[in-house]
Design brief:
Two copies of one chain form a homodimer.
Chain A lengths: L1 E2 L5 E3 L4 H20 L11 H8 L14 H17 L3 H17 L8 H5 L14 H19 L3 H16 L13 H12 L2 H13 L6 H8 L31 H18 L2 H17 L31 H17 L3 H15 L17 E2 L26 H10 L6 E3 L3 E4 L5 E4 L3 E7 L6 E8 L3 E8 L10 E4 L2 E2 L3 E3 L2 E8 L3 E6 L5 E5 L9 E6 L2 E6 H4 L6 E3 L5 E5 L9 E10 L6 E2 L5 E10 L11 E2 L2 E3 L1
Parallel strand pairs in A: 5-9, 18-24
Antiparallel strand pairs in A: 1-4, 2-6, 3-23, 4-5, 6-7, 7-8, 8-14, 9-13, 10-11, 10-14, 12-13, 15-16, 16-17, 16-24, 17-22, 17-23, 18-20, 19-20, 20-22
Chain lengths: 633, 633
């Protein structure tokens, strides 16, 4: 199968289009101001100034994180997508001015990293553990591929190709090296996708194959150098997934963002090369995440230490790290797996992340962001006591280490890419977004009531009258019998396999496929292996995970219980930030407050009507407790 | 009321005498070897070597923690108590040899601290925040008072008095100073108790009054010095209780051991001076602990960060710090409160600590110790993942920072002091230990089945035929109507006030008082304000808190539920480490294991017979899960 490119898809979705507008109208312009240090009171970024200094356009010192360059790259990438979604010649012009600076900052040999160029030119490539050079260049490659795809202009692409050429000269059989933070692999594979040049695939394969081949590499590197950036421990080989060759890895370990960026590249590389070892490793790693290391919201990286995966089933809700960027990386990994092999469980997982723990990272004003996406917050403890200092109960503004907001921006603006895969004789529909896709086999127009309604209508316009399959994702929360398909108004009984309904027919101009499936609220239970959720239930409806907030349910959410058998009422909200969403109301119990710390009488219980709202919207209505899981009784 | 001294009491208690034997036979000799660096494989202590070097008896460098001297002091104090409990001329001789070295290490001006004497003599008294000089000297004063009380020999007492004189010369109105770790106040008050010299009380009052008077003191001190030991933040004035004058403090804050050492001194000083402000502050701080900051086991200092109190009701079981030393300090604080004012709640709290979270610190072999006393452990997570690294699921051997083992030793060996207070016309019995006390009003001999049986017999031999009151603690878990008292075989109806049964009569030689009260197992519930215990119950019987261990209940303790109304069966154990204890058996439920992380079906439940064992014995039968609180259902 071939990945579908963004320019094949136009989104007009009642759920996502407003998000895209918010990003284009608010997030990107705000980030642009940040990059230019034009937001009074915001932490200094200096990211563009670093490029200007490295380009010799102005005098000054490097300022910011060692990976500050990636902020510019991610903004450029998102800006490219934005131009496709919301054409804007002025933005295009400003972005081109940035690209001009980036080009000038590139060194004659193709090297491009402002930290080392300005600050420590003598230390180039000597601290791969901490230096983030390959990480930043990988992001610039992604930006270049996006810019080229959308605008057809190749200035940044040529920068990226010179970069790739330089990297190929530095690393290889004669000089071993792997990045301390994966991303170059993805960047090279994107370059390969847009140019078709095998050398980029080869270089990506080099980095994939090299990882874990010499587990002591970072230790040796550290022994050779007399400088340090973070004083990072090279012995923690799990942190950057260098503990074993990638084909031998079975458990998702270490820094979650690093991990899923690697896994995505492994999946893309497996697709490009047919490498079975990589494909099998990807499957095992996906299983590790999905079956043992993922929150019900799709969030990953539960450890508050080093933004990492923890042990199997260790998924504390109130101490979650669950970084927005990790979930975004997981969306991309899942999409790459779908391009590799159609398995509806990947689409389920992608949905779970998209509708819950990715967009929960952004306030609906587009100006406040969570890095950490907990499943339970308790103001007074969250953000304040040991083990929870990283868990903020409200979204703060832009951070200096601004990885998550631009990452969200690029995910949201490029979402059109995620909904489709296309094979020789099959069109796969992974996500039910309102959109029109220009595919090789057909134009497919989709109208969708998703995620609030299980009603989707597809209109298929084949390039020519031809027999091929339309493979429609059957959400994993459904019984496949409940997935009803009408083709041109007639019941259609395709084959359901691995989570897809295969509709095999000879298609004619204007054929319609209407899907309807029930989105009934449901209770979800964690395995007892998961200490944090035992005895509790969460509520879901369609792809949406719900949570309980203090503003709807009063204080002391921990005192509330769901009644196991009570009917769950669906309420279509009409006002405020909840407008247009379906919230849930259900009978429950409240245990009485007491100032007696330990008592021989259990707390008295009284009836309570509970309200659950979509998790992704939590924290948009003031400070208060929040929790996804409630006790049942 | 006057505190009762150890030499007035002989213990012959079926519960505690074996502990005293274990300490005298095993813990103290082992610690003695440690102090002498004679245990192969153990971390180097060097504590006695430091004294020898400071004494000029040998050459070398200081080694160990800055407070290493206190190990020797605590050993000497415990050795003194041991000589009372188990006379041992050889031990006495060896301890005297140590005292000789300590005396020689004292400087001509009375200063005694081997760290500064050997290593940084120019920095004496310049780093009170970190230096621990007053802490170590306070412990040496406690040792001196104990040694003098038990042996009547005053060599160490004279060392202590010279120390006190030196300190009085250094600190006072002309030079402000307070210790970064409280203890000198207790030491000085002990010196005052055994010598009656008001100057020691005055100096203790100086340090109490000075604390919090200049909240910026440690900051100013740090600004003055150009050296550091721990790089401790002087801004954290809660850590060492210097955020406010002690009479204005209402919430137990900061490092829990520091806090309760301070509070004990405040209570002792309030008793010695009649200071109402101190007494009221002690009451408020006691309420803060008992009502909002104490685990059901009596443990305190719940935060894994800085061994500190956390916020009200923040009492996580699996991330508890709950340091053994903090509970020991709380026992002493409670005893001092009982000497100040008879309130049965202090005796309840003392019992709760004594029978649960103090002795849980020691393995029944006397060779392995917990600093941290969690209420829940999950091997694989405990001690291994973020937020739980400090929570070990098994007791390790002796630590280099050996504060808790010798502290336990001195508490256990001096327990006789804790059971009694005596006023002009009242004898208070706080603890039902098998013992004989030689008090001013009478000799009282006690036979006790406690804590397993609610049967206690007291035989009173008054010094002269005289009317006075015997005030008998009515445990807080009883209805006072269930506390039955026979005097010379006849039902006796005294007055119950503030948790004491006052038996007012003219006593004759050989009068007997027989107490009987039911020790029925009971369920305990935490307030819903406590996030960690909500929906759960713990089991208690008499003063004993119970826990569930994997060895009795199988794995996945989190899958177990107690049935709320099921009868609790009491089982008198006859074998192994549990022999002689009462364990509990109760019907419960087990939720089925599943490898499905999130499921729409709740886990199936099946009947299970559950066994609970005394918490203090946990971890004596191999590695496995443990938890005090189980869900109810």
């Amino acid at each position: 199968m071939k990945p579908v490119s963004l320019k094949q898809v136009r989104l007009h979705d009642s759920f996502w289009s407003p998000y895209q507008k918010l990003v284009s109208d608010t997030v990107l312009p705000y980030q642009e101001k940040i990059l230019n240090d034009e937001v009074p009171g915001a932490e200094k970024s200096h990211a563009l100034a670093n490029f200007r200094i490295a380009a010799g356009l102005e005098q000054g010192e490097f300022y910011g994180m060692v990976f500050q360059d990636s902020d510019v790259a991610k903004w450029l990438e998102a800006a490219a997508y934005s131009l496709w979604v919301h054409p804007d010649p002025a933005l295009e012009q400003r972005a081109e001015a940035v690209i001009d600076i980036v080009e000038k900052a590139q060194q004659p040999d193709g090297y491009l990293d402002t930290y080392f160029t300005i600050k420590e030119p003598e230390h180039r490539w000597q601290n791969l553990l901490e230096g983030h050079e390959l990480y930043c260049m990988g992001h610039m490659m992604e930006a270049a591929a996006a810019w080229y795809e959308v605008t057809g202009k190749d200035k940044l692409l040529r920068v990226a190709e010179r970069m790739a050429g330089h990297i190929a000269n530095v690393f290889g059989p004669d000089r071993y090296g792997i990045p301390g933070h994966e991303e170059i692999e993805v960047g090279l594979l994107r370059l390969y996708q847009v140019t078709g040049k095998a050398s980029y695939l080869d270089l990506a394969m080099y980095f994939l194959n090299a990882r874990g081949e010499r587990p002591d590499f970072f230790k040796e590197e550290k022994a050779r150098r007399d400088f340090s950036i973070f004083d990072m421990a090279p012995a923690n080989t799990a942190y950057n997934q260098s503990f074993a060759p990638v084909r031998e890895q079975s458990s998702a370990e270490g820094h979650a963002v690093r991990a899923v960026y690697l896994y995505r590249a492994m999946a893309d590389a497996a697709g490009a090369t047919g490498d079975e070892g990589l494909r099998k490793a990807c499957r095992r790693l996906m299983d590790s995440i999905r079956n043992r290391k993922m929150y019900v919201t799709g969030a990953i990286g539960s450890s508050g230490e080093l933004e990492s995966f923890s042990k199997d089933y260790d998924l504390p809700g109130d101490r979650a790290y669950a970084e927005t960027c990790a979930q975004i990386g997981l969306v991309f990994f899942a999409k790459s797996m779908l391009d590799l092999e159609p398995d509806g469980r990947y689409a389920d997982l992608m949905e779970r992340c998209l509708y819950n723990s990715t967009i929960s990272g952004m306030q609906m004003d587009g100006k406040h962001f969570f890095y950490v996406n907990p499943l339970e917050t308790n103001p007074g403890l969250s953000g304040e006591v040991f083990g929870m200092r990283h868990v903020l109960p409200e979204r703060p503004g832009w951070y200096q280490c601004a990885c998550c907001p631009p990452n969200l921006a690029r995910m949201i603006l490029s979402l059109g890419r995620c909904g489709w895969s296309e094979g020789e004789d099959t069109i796969f529909v992974h996500l039910y977004l309102g959109q029109t896709a220009e595919l090789a086999l057909a134009r497919v127009a989709v109208e969708s009531g998703y995620p609030w309604e299980g009603k989707v209508k597809l209109t298929v316009t084949p390039r020519e009258r031809k027999r091929f399959m339309l493979a429609l994702h059957v959400p994993g929360y459904l019984n496949s019998a409940d997935f009803q398909v009408l083709c041109n108004g007639q019941p259609s009984d395709g084959v359901v396999e691995m989570g897809y309904f295969y509709l095999d027919r000879t298609w004619s101009h204007g054929d319609t496929v209407e899907l309807s499936f029930p989105l009934k609220p449901r209770r979800v239970y964690g395995t007892v292996r998961c200490l944090d959720t035992v005895g509790k239930a969460a509520l879901e409806r369609g792809p949406i995970v719900y949570c309980f907030e203090e503003t709807d349910n009063g204080s002391q959410l921990q005192a509330l219980l769901l009644r196991r058998d009570a009917a769950i009422e669906e309420v279509l909200e009409t006002g405020g930030v909840l407008a247009g969403t379906v919230t849930l109301a259900v009978d429950g119990l409240r245990e009485a407050d007491s100032d007696i710390l330990y008592d021989t009488k259990p707390p008295a219980r009284s009836a309570a009507r509970l309200k659950a709202v979509p998790y992704y919207l939590w924290g948009n209505r003031g400070l208060g407790q929040m929790r996804v899981w409630l006790r049942e009784g």
